[in-house]
Amino acid sequence: MRIENNYIVLCVIACILLCSCRHLDSEYGVDFSRLPNNGRTFVPYSEQTHDVDISDLSSVLTEESENAAPQPHKASSMNLTDAMRGVVESFTSYNICQICGTYYSTDLQGQEVRLSGAVFYPIRGRIHNVIICSHYTVAANYEVPSMTCPLEATLAGLGYVVVMPDYIGYGASMDRVHPYLQQDLTARNVADMALAVRPFLAARKIVVESDEIILVGYSQGGTAAMFTQRLMETDEEYKGLFKIKKTYCGGGPYNLARTYEFCMDHDKTGIPYAVPLLIVGMSEGMETPLDVASFFQEPLKSHYEEWLKSKKYNGTQITTMIGENHLSKILSPEGMDLTNPETQRLYKELQENTLPSDYMPQTPMYIFHSKDDQTVPFINADEIRSQFERHGAGGPLIEYDFGNYGTHQQGFTKFLLKMLTTL
Questions:
Q1: Which residues contact 210 (CB under 8 A, 6 or more apart)?
Q2: Measuring CA to CA, how many Å separate 182 from each of 128, 234, 286, 354?
Q3: CA torsion angle for 301, 307, 310, 312 (degrees, to 10)?
Q4: Is the CB of residue 354 less than 8 Å from the CB of residue 182?
Q5: Are 115 and 139 spatial neighbours (Cβ–Cβ below 8 Å)?
Q6: Is the separation of the CB atoms in 102 and 186 below 8 Å?
Q7: Residue 37: which of 185, 199, 202 has the closest Cα?
Q8: pTM above the 0.85 mark?
Q9: E-assigned strands of 127-207?
Q10: Which of 5, 226, 284, 297 is the most buried (most CB within 10 A)?
């Protein structure tokens, strides 16, 4: 009897030890408590569950603009529907959990700043990797990840932890000006959230199969993803802290200076509300701020601070209030004059926020861009390809997907589908 009792006790102890060590076994997942972090833990303040609405996702991926001209090589609705069916069959869970919280990073002055973001993960099923997703350009505070459930959160239903920062100027830091397209800063803020989430995942005992991360972003998010990869690969503070499986960059403004020249030459922009966002954002990064108002014509000149700093208006509303998409009607003659000292200072700041010409990716990257994109001109992707090829980056390391995929918005659906079906 005593032997049997001892045997039972030993079995119980063995089971306890096995269970307590389960998260350390590579077969079961990553021990996030052992991965390095920056000491700035992600602190949750709200939690809710969402049902993944497959019909909404399917409609986004199959919708075609009634006014759009037919595009060569454009995927048909039938092809998208077939692909969508494959995506649906891949879902591990139709229920995802959204955790909103705060973490600490640094601002343009190198000072500590409290930021916010959201983490999404499936309620059921296996979790393959952590995806660090940088969102596209928004203007209203209610559009950021901590205030809504963005479309990219769908990735959680496919079996991923999705980490989405709000960026400075939104969420917990709404009282600040958003330093729009200050690329190195944004990359640092994104990487800091990725690090801060690690102890949170360990505390929640969320099991992820691999410690390789995936970087994702479209438009502003596309350039944020590329700069985040560069930061993780080259910055001494972040090198060795991440294993990057792959980066998905779509429709990003990687070369701000050339984008500015292109829009000036064509006297047009596909995203009018980004014009004041860009000038204000560049000014935020300068030791001596720009005379921002001198760049604008009315009504933008009198209202840009309210339209941008209140964070009440979305991009469509601001564009409607601006009432123009021709730069010569949005910018003042001084703002259009490349010999004007203030415009030259702006141009220099744009150059400093362009991807450095000596950078070459060290881990796999997928770069998508529609040649028809008038919002973020195709020159961005074309010049990135030329730059990388000059350095010998190509082959299996970098995949380019450039085609006539329609507008910037239409391109996003193709990019999202590609990502959903190749992760």
A1: 30, 128, 129, 245
A2: 31, 18, 10, 9
A3: 170
A4: no
A5: no
A6: no
A7: 199
A8: yes
A9: 129-134, 160-165
A10: 226
Helix 379-390 and helix 256-266: axis angle, to 10°?
140
Measured between alpha carbons, how far is residue 300 from residues 41, 77, 269, 329 in Å?
40, 40, 15, 10
Q: What is the pLDDT of residues 165-211, one digit of tens each?
A: 999 999 999 999 999 999 999 999 999 999 999 999 999 999 999 99
Instruction: Enumerate residues 6+ apart whose C-beta is below 8 A from 367.
Output: 249, 250, 381, 384, 385, 398, 399, 400, 401
* pLDDT for res 91: 76
The encoded tokens of residue 398 equal: 């970098």
| Stretch (H or E) spanning 316 | helix 315-322
Spatial CA neighbour of 287 closest among 107, 168, 109, 112: 109
Among 253, 200, 244, residue whose Cα is nearest residue 361: 244
Residue 192 is encoded by which pair of tokens? 């800091």
Tally Cβ neighbours within 10 Å of residue 52.
Answer: 20
* Token pair of 149 as six digits: 């459930």
Q: How far apart are CA 285 and CA 179, in angstroms?
A: 7
End-to-end CA distance of the chain: 56
How far apart are the C-alpha atoms of 199 and 41, rounded to whole Å?
6
Question: Residue 269 is encoded by which pair of tokens?
Answer: 């922009």
Within a 10 A sphere around the Cβ of 268, how many other Cβ atoms? 16
Confidence band, pLDDT 50/70/90 cuts, at residue 15? very low
Phi–psi pair at 402, nearest 5 degrees: -115, 125
Three-state secondary structure call for residue 331: strand
Contacts of 209 (CB under 8 A, 6+ apart): 29, 30, 126, 127, 128, 129
Interhelix angle for 220-234 vs 183-204, to 10°? 80
Residue type, 211: D
